[in-house]
Design a protein that fits this description.
The structure is a homodimer of 467-residue chains.
Chain A lengths: L1 E2 L3 E2 L4 E2 L2 E2 L5 H13 L12 H8 L3 H13 L3 E4 L3 E4 L6 H5 L16 E2 L12 H14 L14 H15 L8 E4 L2 H14 L4 E5 L4 H9 L3 E5 L1 E2 L2 E2 L8 E4 L13 H14 L2 E5 L23 E6 L11 E4 L2 H15 L5 H11 L2 H27 L4 E3 L6 E5 L4 H10 L2 E2 L1 E2 L14 E5 L5 H16 L1
Parallel strand pairs in A: 7-19, 9-10, 9-13, 13-14, 14-15
Antiparallel strand pairs in A: 1-4, 2-3, 5-6, 8-16, 11-12, 15-16, 17-18, 18-21, 20-21
């Protein structure tokens, strides 16, 4: 990375970190970073495109295009006579960066009337009464030490039930002793990254589409995430590099494709040949509609693949419960980091979830919500076919979101939707290196809205897409 | 730090990191570290004292003394004819390192019949039925978004009730907007340390007595903990150094004294003069028996002092719920780290605790358990006076542990107690730089045992101390 000098123009001193020759995508990314990190606070006036272009030694059109995109995305505002400003937190930085509303600043986020970004299940499906019933069984039955400082791997009751469930439902080769209960998937990734760095890793391959939050987590622990191309067969596992790779084999986020069989094999071979670790992010493996779920990659080589799963999609993100199934050689180092991170994950909900799984309610809940989301998906697909025939729908066979190729400028549609109270996101928003010209597509999460607003959300979406 | 070369003697290759001239204390610490970290696994044969002394260029007696101490503490075993070995995990490393049983390896820990180490409350006091009743009120009443990715500071219901409680019970100047709910105190310390390091800090003053786990957390995030002497008036706040200090002002752990008024003032002045941050660890501020609790140091300067509190002693460690009250300028940086650490703390127990506080049950529970622990303390003090008159008891006015100055070798008493099934710890065990000769004292936690074994534990303790 080369840091070009400050360019002090009409507005802010703008320190941009640009690598190599700055194209539009580079510039967009650098501005994103500056706004997200708070280096450019809301209300900051940016230099004119002419002035910034001169400072950076690039074409004025490149700057103007980048500004235009950021205006469309809501990061900047352009007002006649007052130039280009960093937007007031109409849509706070973090909200854009992580549509799962997974970030500081989230609490400043204005509520959109409708939310069709992916990342959150329908929170109204959380089985409050069944959960309370499980708690009424689990808490009185628990030994006293369940309330104390206990096994840093988590409660044995939950690890045993999970081992059984994961083997049955996801084909995971799981031993309760190799399971670590984490405080959410972000923590799992955090712990793993830290251990890999301690062991000498410097680079982690990531799919070129995904959540920027995850890349931030990897960076925060000192590894460099490196994007690997993804196509209709999933990630190009022949191009993996570094000492680890983070993959979504069952259902690529956000393209929605499963990793093709030969690429699964290739990924594991790469890990063996390179002495590398694969991290399998099985965030919504339960939700497959058209055929049997794609089994966990982990089963191909449990000593090379760390399986990670979560209750965030199947039950509720607020539980902050996730689990890793670890290779033997990573167990002790990961536990050592867990110790200085938060000692162990809270135990009461672990006891309840163990009971909830053991009683069969978890399986029933997954089946019930799978039907629920499948109906929503069918409704969305039918409606789009009827009202927005120019749109191509992909990634429909699983998960809680679809990919829409749209006949028009995707960023422009997002901006219009937001002005009308509908939060959606472009595919480009999930791209490691933004490149808005490459593919005009939207990622639409149909899991998030509660039932009473789902039809309204779809109606507005169709209006935007039909234009 | 200088790393002296490997010394390959009769037994293991022994890589010891020794700083400066190695005395007995240095050597004991280096061996502790090697065993704790797993570099010296159980069963490893150590070089003879003669051989190691030669390799390190120190007196043979120094090595022999260090070995002797570690044998007494249960880290090593010495057998006629087979030399000195790292002990099988009769008492696993982590159990000794962090008597709150707060470490990986904990799950290997054999159960002692009696446990009088400090750090855990009596787990049988956890109010299971009241907690379930609060859950039955709180969960159905919660909005849907309580189950989602929400405010990274934690649920507003809990922050509001805590702000009120902390002001009332602990004299904290608390605003719900400045409270961050954490996944336990270890996480609070982890987040703070990381932010301070990002802001350029290199050194954090710590009290010379405390938990090694906390020092490990500080180190894990790249700061150097630096011990500051503690006497009968608390920490020598005229000797604070670095860019931050971690203090237990209400009740020094483990000496049991409150920080004297002039030293409180001095600490805050130091923070102002040095542009430093004080971290107030108010781990058991609720438990004061003889007079009004000592109010929080934070009230003296909320922009310089981070207040941290926890439900681990007042309710249960398994809840993993702690809270920080942050200066305004630290709020955003700490939230940014929280985001890549675990996004937010699990929300369900937050809702329940909010209801538990709001209904008045929390206050009643604290009063009830305060009486419970007070009776235990009284019983302990009376028994010792009668059966072990050579013992001097200190630190009795608050908390869940006392300090016993004993007429004999403290490490020897601990070893004898453990052989008889009673887990206790020396004061020296809590010392930053072990120095077993300086003061023969034990730290006895009377909070941990359940009622049915408390009398048995005290009986065994008196037998050990009376000899």
């Amino acid at each position: 990375m080369e840091e070009r000098g400050a360019n002090s123009a009409a507005g802010a001193d703008l320190h941009l970190e640009l690598s190599g020759t700055a194209g539009r995508a580079e510039l967009v990314r650098a501005l994103h970073d500056s706004i997200r990190s708070g280096r450019l606070p809301a209300g900051t006036r940016l230099p004119s495109s002419r002035s910034l272009a001169k400072d950076l030694g690039i074409a004025r059109n490149t700057v103007a295009d980048a500004y235009g995109q950021l205006v469309a995305e809501g990061w900047l505002t352009a007002r006649q006579g007052s130039g280009t400003l960093v937007a007031e937190r109409v849509l706070p930085a973090a909200g854009v960066a992580t549509p799962g509303r997974e970030a500081p600043g989230t609490f400043d986020r204005p509520s959109y009337r409708y939310d069709l970004t992916p990342g959150s299940p329908d929170l109204s499906t959380f089985p409050r009464n069944e959960w309370l019933a499980a708690a009424r069984k689990a808490l009185p039955a628990a030994p006293n030490d369940a309330f104390g400082y206990g096994d840093p791997r988590g409660r044995i009751e939950l690890r045993e039930n999970l081992a059984d469930y994961l083997a049955r439902a996801r084909g995971v080769r799981a031993d309760p002793d190799r399971i670590l209960i984490c405080s959410g998937y972000v923590q799992a990734l955090n712990l793993l990254t830290d251990v890999l760095r301690q062991q000498g890793a410097t680079t982690m391959s990531v799919e070129e589409f995904g959540y920027s939050l995850h890349w931030d987590v990897i960076r925060s622990r000192g590894l460099q995430p490196t994007p690997v191309p993804v196509d209709e067969y999933g990630v190009r596992s022949d191009l993996l590099q570094g000492q680890a790779a983070l993959l979504t084999p069952a259902h690529q986020m956000p393209l929605g494709v499963p990793l093709a069989p030969d690429r699964r094999t290739r990924a594991v071979e790469w890990a063996r040949d390179s002495d590398a670790i694969l991290i399998e992010d099985d965030y919504d493996g339960e939700f497959r509609y058209d055929r049997q779920s794609v089994g966990a990659l982990q089963a191909l080589d449990p000593e090379r693949v760390v399986y990670t799963g979560t209750a965030s999609k199947s039950l509720a993100p607020g539980l902050r419960l996730a689990w890793m199934v670890l290779p033997e050689h990573l167990m002790e180092p990961v536990l050592a980091v867990k110790r200085t991170t938060d000692l162990l994950t809270a135990t009461l909900d672990q006891l309840v979830l163990a009971e909830y799984i053991a009683s069969g309610h978890y399986d029933r809940h997954v089946r019930r919500t799978r039907q629920h989301y499948r109906r929503r998906r069918d409704h969305l697909v039918e409606l789009l076919a009827a009202r927005a025939p120019g749109v191509t729908v992909a990634g429909i066979s699983a998960g809680l979101h679809v990919l829409l190729d749209v006949p028009g400028d995707a960023a422009d549609m997002v901006a219009r939707a937001r002005r009308q109270g509908l939060l959606i996101a472009t595919l480009d928003h999930y791209r490691f290196t933004p490149n808005p010209a490459e593919r005009q597509a939207l990622v639409v999460g149909y899991g998030t809205p509660p039932d009473h607003s789902y039809n309204g959300a779809l109606d507005l979406l169709c209006q935007i897409l039909a234009v």
